[in-house]
Design goal:
single chain; 294 residues; alpha+beta; Arc Repressor Mutant, subunit A; five-stranded antiparallel sheet; 13 helices; 8 strands; elongated
Length: 294
Amino acid sequence: MASAPSEPRPILGRVDRAGRLIAADAELATLQMEAGSSIGATLALPQVAAVARLARKLGIPVSRPAVAAGSNQDIDLWVRAVPEGDEIALTLEGWTVRPAAPPRLAALLGGDSGPQAVAENGEWATDADMKLTSVSAHWIKNSPPDEVAKHAHPFFLEAEIESRDEAKQIRVCAALKERATTLVELATKAKIFYGHGVVIDSAAGAKHLTEEGKAVLAQVRQALATTEWNVAALDAVVKTLSESLKVGMGKIAQPVRVAVTGRSVGPPLFESLELLGREASLDRLTVARDRLTG
């Protein structure tokens, strides 16, 4: 069983260019073995390995929270991965042990140690290195947002979503978990809530970003520039504008939705705006408005 260091200290390790754990302090080595791997073999802690891969891909130090599963406990960690030549230097801190969340690695290994070992309830799948490869759509839809966010985090990293805002990731997962069937799909959909750009679907743009929508987007942007940035306030702005223009809410909401998300369907509009933030939302409205005149 992997135990916490006797005194608080960083736990060190090194990963080579092939993703193998080639050196590790005793605590990390024990976790690697409990995951069914060993020193010199592929790093079998999915979230730690994801941080290492991202650091290698970007060529810069990367720090992220992670969860490592021992044989009968979970360990919360803060992982820092630093590229050093062909290797990645790992530093694990904040080692915090907590009760295990099912399914356990021991149960998975005991049932089927081959590729695509699956928990008894059929909701999880792993590869031969015990890397989480998929969870069921049922699990995503019925699990608490914080639990979904914890397991989606490596997939966010793979999708190159750069964020240390854990609370936002939980809210993003809450908004998307009813609309995603896999964690890969969830992470892909989540990209609209990060960064300042969005690719507008051509059909949605042709239908909703018409010349008529030009004036609507301009007025919405002007109104949103000074309003409070929360769901209730954003809803009130659009309702007020709808009443003043004597048009239905859809005539305003749909052009705004397409402008900020690139799609005509998706999570609730005002929650999407709140999650995206004022600056990015206003930027996207400006780009969509100018697109109409091009």
